[in-house]
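User: Structure tokens for both sequences below?

Assistant:
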Amino acid sequence: MTADYHTLTRAAEAEQVIKKSRFICAVAPIKSEKDAQAFIAAVAKAHPKANHHVPVYLLGDDDHIQRANDAGEPAGTAGVPMLRTLQEMGLHDVVAVTTRYFGGIKLGAGGLIRAYAGSVTAAVKQAGISRRQMMRALTLSMPYAQLDRVTHWLGEQSLTITATDYQEQVTVSVAVPAAQAELVSRDLVDLTAGQVVPQLGALSPLLIPQPQ
């Protein structure tokens, strides 16, 4: 997975009481179906007397894995509304489980859809949303005479130096947005008249919390 996208900042839960029924939604960021299934199992274990545990999850840059289950609620009133809510928020690599303790009053199809969708919205608000940006590691080896010029230029570009190693030459490691890595590399070659030729390294994700 190499695309930039939005996901949850952390695991969280939120509770709503609607006509005496308790709806407790737990959400979390995940990396695999194994993560999702473990989270779903943990929620069910924490609420063994609940009437329903409705699980949904999305995986992949393009949501190539999507799972939703109504868990005993009328078809289309629980899992699908939860899944659609996550998709409408533009979230990826997330799991949500809404636990329902039935309060004795039936909500009807429309009421259930609103309750399950609303439970996800409330839990996501507690978890927060982050933009996952893929970063490319660049390694810059240079003569000491180039260090001030290069570090000043990196600061002007708001690029983060992650490590510096002082040996016969200085080696600086920089995290660069993946889409900009080749352009940054060319600019550094031009800036230093070819004395710095960046080496492209591995990709890694960076989570950037978004204002709510």
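Moving on to the next sequence.
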Amino acid sequence: MFTRKPFLAMLLTSLFFASTLLASCAGGGSQQSGVTTLKVWFPGSPTPGGPEFSLVTKQLVPEFEKANPGIKVDLQYVPWENLSPKLNSAFAGGIAPDIFGHGPAAAADFVANDRVLPLDTYINNLDATTREDFGTILDGGIVGSKRYMVPLSGQGFLIAYRTDLFREAGLNPDNPPRTWEELRTVAEKLTKRNGNTITRSGFISNLEGYNVQQTFATFLIQAGGSLLSNDGKTITWNSPAGVKALQYLVDLYHGSQPVAKDLHSYALPAAQQPLVTGQAAMALVETGALNNIYLSAPDAMKNIAVMPSLKDAQQGAFGGSGPGLFINKDSKHPDLAWRFIKFMMDANTLKSYYTVTSGIPARSSFINSDLVQKKPFLKQFIAAYSTFKPNPNVQNWVQIRDTLSRHLAQAMAQQVTPQVALDAAAKEAAPLVGK
């Protein structure tokens, strides 16, 4: 969804003309001796022989091939940092895979360069139960009015909290904050100080790099604002709602009674995370961080719960679809490629897949599954799907996001006011919007 680096738009544009000339030999897959080979690239770097790698390559792919005689799947994992350059070269050479995974932020650039196939016909032919089960997660790959991606998982940001620290402060962990006002009040009760130094933050969020934009988007949504207009052509983050959201965040860290300390620790191992060590009582997190704690610090996880999305003007959270699968427009076997994607969407397939990955189950019916019983922190994320709003699927989004992030960081450091930061970001990003 949201944090992966997509294609460099200018590079893709220049390579598009070369790939067009080679379209006659494009298509990824091949057909020999009655066997059709589908070339599939999954993003990521799972350890060879590890749980995800073994499940996908040794179980799921053979299951698909057994159910579809005559189809062989050539599946490769491509590290995220290599994915865009490798796809660029493959498109230019007419040898891109039939199916490839990427984040939704890349969708608009793929579409602008005519590299991916619209999937609406296939999706509309799914049974109603499947479409309803995926719900708004299927909207993650929408560009314009068409769908181009099928998400394998969801991603989102909610506030996790230490139930034991709630009790220690005389708070009811079964009744966590539901509004900004309540969050501030509870955070003050949970914050510990040694003089003017915060020794335990009542609340923290990730302000490192582009993560500050995701934190801001969470509160912007709850304030009733948006990053861009509905048509994606106008910047709206510097609205009164945007200023209110950013001021609220600044005050949490720098107000007359700050409750947050910038710990710069989100990249640390799970056992050193602030929620685990007790350096923070509440933290805005995504499921990957909680999954790492679940796996590496299970004793701490027993004292960590997740609250529903907060509300100011409205209830909401930053989130939506995670990475998903696209079909190369030049694939010679689009129907067979869709057959593989449909297999990956199957409930039984996904139940296996989610046991070894950290995303939110894309099917809302999984909220009562054994998987969620084992990982109860997932329940609130699935329940919050209807309140999730993602970053816009527009061209140049990564450059736009990074521009906004730089100015947000200046406001969070109190170098400029929220209004000045948001206006400056809007002015700098304006030439990139609506292209």
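User: Anything stand out in the second?

Assistant: The CA atoms of residues 189 and 402 lie 34 Å apart.
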